[in-house]
Specification:
GO terms for molecular function: chromatin binding. This protein is mostly beta strands. The protein contains two helices and 29 strands. The termini are close together.
């Protein structure tokens, strides 16, 4: 498994594009690797769902959701079913059987567009957040939400909440109004958060000045636990990326090398050993940072023709993927030859 490999700076610097796919006619808005790492699925603003074979480096098939649109796609229960958000008709989340392209269940309740979808490791529970300022907790077997949380605080403007599960699936974090993080125990979420903190308020004086300058224009767009569960990375629609301690909210690093003139909702990801952070930028670059020191290890120009909103590390293979309108597979390439794709 890739999680068993100790990544080094040399490893990260060796990553280069091994495969490029130009299947989509519009922006790829989400992607997700299967747990075994062998398959990747993507969703696009052109209403397509593309399935990739990561071992062979090729596309397997393309499906369409012309009626409902497709966003936030995520495998569930292996590689035969996916959950996805809707961009047309209504704001339901849908469970799709890929074989036959048939819908199994709709999850209705949100009144505005869903902006995050996270699945617990058990794959029986998932969490959604929406610009209607609510979060809903779902049992995948039941079409109605099992829990409802209001993400709007008593003061301050409304904004898109972001949420995600920790690697154990016991805790989920909710980012509210791009300033506040609340931690919930999934077993007792109805009792409210067991911890609440404002992580950016604790930055040093230089970071405070930067935060005060950008906070009114930056929205949190993505929240991700590290695979070891010790850190949370917060991506924004601005020019900064924040790394904080997961359960106290203490700031670790703030990264300000991102270009994002169009205020795209960028994402971030960790290497499987939690040692490195990867993010895309609006100027076609990917940036790789060392989590411990905050050092920028490398930045790479890509053949993407716009902001890199999607970036994910494969959980089992020594590879990651990035996407805009096209999809790129990255492998460590030594002497112009890809290194072994599968980890030991």
């Amino acid at each position: 498994m890739a999680s068993e490999i100790k990544f080094t700076q040399d490893t990260m610097k060796q990553f280069n594009v091994a495969k490029s796919f130009a299947v989509n006619k519009d922006r790829i808005n989400a992607m997700n690797f299967s747990l075994d790492g062998e398959t990747l699925v993507s969703s696009s603003d052109d209403d397509s769902i593309v399935i990739y074979d990561c071992k062979e480096g090729e596309t397997k098939r393309t499906l369409f959701s012309k009626k409902y649109g497709v966003d936030l796609i995520h495998f569930i229960h292996g590689t035969e079913q996916v959950l996805h958000g809707s961009t047309k008709v209504d704001d339901s989340v849908r469970l799709l059987q890929l074989e036959g392209n048939k819908y199994i269940r709709y999850y209705s309740g949100h009144t505005k567009r869903v902006v995050s979808l996270s699945i617990a490791p058990t794959e029986e529970t998932f969490l959604t957040s929406s610009v209607d300022n609510t979060l809903r907790l779902w049992d995948v077997r039941i079409p109605t939400a099992q829990g409802l949380l209001n993400a709007q605080t008593t003061s301050g403007p409304a904004s898109r909440p972001v949420a995600n599960f920790d690697p154990e699936g016991v805790v989920f974090a909710v980012g509210v109004q791009s300033s506040l993080i609340k931690l919930f125990d999934i077993r007792h979420f109805d009792k409210g958060p067991f911890a609440t903190f404002r992580p950016l308020d604790n930055n040093d004086s230089n970071d405070k000045q930067a935060t005060n300058t950008n906070q009114s224009i930056e929205q949190w767009t993505h929240l991700k636990f590290s695979p070891d569960g010790k850190m949370i990375c917060i991506a924004t629609n601005g020019t900064s990326l924040h790394l904080i301690e997961a359960f106290q909210g203490l700031p670790i690093h703030r990264f300000n090398d991102i270009v994002n003139d169009r205020k795209e909702p960028l994402q971030c990801c960790f290497s499987p050993d939690s040692s490195y952070i990867l993010c895309g930028s609006g100027d076609n670059r990917i940036l790789i940072y060392k989590a411990e020191s905050g050092e920028k290890v490398i930045e790479k120009q890509t053949e993407h023709n716009g902001a890199i909103q999607c970036i994910q590390f494969n959980p089992a293979f020594l590879m990651f993927a990035t996407a805009h309108n096209n999809m790129l597979f990255w492998l460590p390439i030594i002497d112009s030859q890809p290194a072994d794709e599968l980890s030991s």
